[in-house]
TrEMBL record:
It comes from the Eukaryota. PROSITE patterns: FBOX. CDD domains: F-box_SF (cd09917). Coiled coil: none annotated. This is F-box domain-containing protein. Residues 1-34 form the F-box domain. It comes from Rhizopus oryzae (Mucormycosis agent). InterPro entries: F-box-like_dom_sf, F-box_dom.
Length: 190
């Protein structure tokens, strides 16, 4: 970097800037781009944004922990530690609604919704790796269809000649587990 100010002073100034300002500098000034990306990476991995992001899945909420920052693609990767969510549905091709959550921003979940659609004709016991993208994030997920539970046998009374039939079929049961969240710089700076 060939500038008027030494690198130590520039890095010290960058320590006091907001993430939004660092993203603006990274986009507008080629000479300061590497320093800005370095400071962004440092803040994502160790700084204040450590537990800032989460995802609302079906009816539960999970937190995302920073894992790495890719300076080439300019994306932050977060790992998601969660137990699989069990989903029952009476039809295939069901949409599972999710939302990106940001700490200290109540309105953020209403703007950044995405859906994971269950594939039609999915075999029992089969696991599918999915990449779900929208304009603000990318999520990697695993969807598994569980076998139908066996119905308990109903003891028929010999005095009743009628056979008992269930009123509704057994629901399809799926498990959904999110594994990784990817956020571009535009989402981080929003």
């Amino acid at each position: 970097m060939d500038s008027v100010l030494p690198a130590e002073i520039i890095l010290n100034i960058f320590n006091h800037l907001s993430l939004k300002d660092l993203v603006r500098i990274e986009r507008s000034c080629k000479r300061l781009q590497s320093c800005a990306l370095s400071e962004i990476e440092k803040r994502i991995r160790k700084g204040s944004s450590k537990d800032e992001w989460g995802i609302l899945v079906h009816l539960g909420q999970v937190n995302a922990q920073p894992e790495r920052f890719d300076t080439v693609n300019k994306k932050a990767y977060y790992s998601i530690q969660m137990d699989p969510v069990k989903i029952k549905t009476m039809f295939e091709k069901r949409q599972i609604h999710c939302s990106l959550l940001r700490k200290n921003n109540e309105d953020y979940d209403t703007k950044n919704k995405f859906t994971i659609t269950v594939q039609k004709g999915m075999e029992e016991g089969r696991r599918i790796e999915m990449d779900v993208k929208n304009e603000s994030c990318q999520v990697q997920a695993q969807l598994t269809r569980l076998p139908h539970p066996t119905r308990p046998l109903i003891q028929q009374d010999p005095k009743q000649p009628h056979t008992l039939t269930p009123l509704a079929p057994s629901p399809f049961i799926y498990t959904l587990q999110l594994t990784e969240l990817c956020l571009p710089l535009s989402t981080l700076a929003a």
